[in-house]
Prior knowledge:
The structure is a single chain. By secondary structure, the protein is of the alpha/beta class. Among the domains are: about 85-310 and about 405-470, Metal-dependent hydrolases (TIM Barrel, Alpha-Beta Barrel); about 315-405, no CATH class. The protein contains 17 helices and 21 strands. The protein has helices spanning about 5-15, 95-100, 110-115, 120, 140-150, 160-170, 180-195, 215-225, 245-265, 285-295, 335-350, 375-380, 385-395, 410-415, 440-455, 460-465, 470-475, and strands at about 35-40, 50-60, 60-65, 70-75, 80-85, 85-90, 125-130, 155-160, 200-205, 230-235, 270, 300-305, 310-315, 360, 375, 400-405, 420-425, 490-495, 515-520, 525-530, 530. Helix 8 (about 215-225) links the parallel strand 9 and strand 10. Helix 6 crosses helix 7 and helix 7 runs parallel beside helix 8 (about 215-225). It starts with a helix and ends in a 13-residue tail after the last strand.
Amino acid sequence: MLTRREFLKDAAFCGAAGLAFPHLSCRSSEEIYDIVIRNGTVYNGTAAAPFVADVGIVGDRIVAVGHLAASGRATISARNCIVAPGFIDVHEHSDYLFQSLGDDREDARGNRCWMSNEAGLLQGVTTVVSGNCGYGFTDMDEYYAFIDSLPFAPNTCYLTPHGYLRQELFGIDTMDLTPDQLERLKAKVAQEMEKGALGMSTGLGYVPGVNASKEELIALSRVIKKYNGIYVSHIRNEPPSDYTNANVQIMAGILEAIDIGRQAGVPVQISHIKAYIGGAPAGDDAIGRAIGDARAEGIDVTADQYPFTASSMNLSVLAPPAFRTATGIKPQYWNDPEARQAIRDAVAETFLTLTTDKILITLWTGKRDYAYTSLQEIAAEEGKDAAEIYVEMVCGENPPAGIFFVIDEGALRQLMAKEYVFTGSDGCAVPEQASYGHPRTTSSFVKKLKVFALEEGVLSLQSALLSMTSRPAEKFGIRQRGKILPEYYADVCVFDPAALEAPATYLEPSVYSKGVRYVIVNGVIEVANGSVTGLRGGRALRRST
Length: 545
C-alpha cells in the first residue's frame, strides 16, 4: 500500500514533470535516442498509476517518457510487458564472495556468472548494496577498484562492515572496548564514510560483532550520522540460542536496533527480518507493531526480507561464540578433546529446541554424498548422535552451511505487506546449476512478484515494485535511481508478468529465474530477449554520487 506521504510527494513531482500526461515527449521527432522502449506498461516508481508509454534513453540517462515520435538506435518492444525501474537488492554479499577468493580473486575475470551477477541480473537487479552483516572489505576503495576493473554488471553501494573493522583493529576475542580503542574504531568508521560508504552494517549474531555493546554501537552510529549515514543491522540474537523463546530474543534484538537509532539519531535498517516458528509471539504481528510504534515516534526504521521460510547460515554459528571465528571454529580447538566436548554439549542443548530434521546440510566437503541431506538423516546413517556429527562437520576447514526451516510463514506474509519492508536476497553472484546455495539468491525478486503479488495478492504489484525500487533508493540515499523519470539514470527492467518463473528449490537452489526480458544498467543493455549479453555497465556508487 502506498503511504499518503508518498502519494502526495510523487503526485506533485509527476505533475511538475509532466508525467500526468504520458503522451508528453521531451524531444522532437527528428532527434534520435540511443534506446527506445516502446509500448510498455510503465510502473515508474512513484504513486502514479501504471500507464502505457515509451521510454527514451540517451547515454546513461532517461530523457523522455511518453508517446515518443523519435526513433532509437536500439528499439525494445515492451508490448504486454511491464517497464519498471531496475531493482535494488539492499542485502547482498558478492563482496564477500570476491573477498573469500583471496589471491585467486583475478579468476573472477574469467567467470561470466560472477562478473555479470547473472543470478540477480536475470531477476532485474541493477543495483546491489554490499558490506552487509558486519563482514566484507575493511577498505572500500580496495573493493571498488576491483569491481570497477572487471567491471561488475550491477551498480554497487557499500556499507562499512563493523565486525571486520573491529577484528582488523583488535582481534576476534576483544570484548568491551577501552575508550582509546573505541576512538580508534570511530576514526576507522569515519575514514570509510569519507570514502563514500552509505553507512555501517553489523552482524551481532557473529563473531566478533556479538562482542560489541549497545553503547559501542551508539557511539559509532553517531559517527555515521555526521555523514547522513544509515545503521544496518543483522540484529543480536539471530540465530537465537533457545528456539522455544526465539521471538522473545528476536524482539529484543529489534528493540536494541531501534534504540540505537533513537539515541544516535540515525536511520535504521533491520536485515532479513523474520519471526520464528513456534516461538510466540510470531503470527500476531508483534514485530510489525514494535516497528510501527517506533516509526510513529519519528524513528526512521525499515527492514528487508527474502520471501522464503528457511534461512541459511554457516553451521558453526550454533557453537558458543568463544570457540568461533567469523567463518568457523578456531583451529586450536579442532582437535582439542575438551573444546570439542564443550561444543558438543552446547549444541546438544540447542538441538532440544531446534530439531535436527529442520537443518538441511548443503555441502559437507568431508562427505559430499550427504549434500542436501538433513542433519537428522546424516546422524542416523552414521550411527551417531546429531551433536557428535555436528562437531565433526565444524571442527575443520570449510564447515558446511545449513538451511534452517524455522521461519514463520504467517509473519513473513504480514511483514511483506508493510510499506517499510524492502526486498533483499541475502545472496551473491552464483553460477547457474551450482551445487550449493539457497534459492533466495536466484529467485527472491521474481518469487515476490509472481507468487506473493500476482498470484496470492499478499501485496499489490505496485507495492511489490516500490519495495525493490524507489523506497530503498530513498532510504539508502541512492540518488537519481529507482524511478522511471527524465534525468534519472537509465536503470530499467522489462519483464513479462505472464512469463515469470522462479524454478529454484532448496534441492536445486541455483536455477535462474525467468520472465525478465531486458535489463538496462546506466544505459547498457545487459539482458536482451531473456539472455545475458555480456555487456556490463555497473558502477561503484559512493554516498555523494
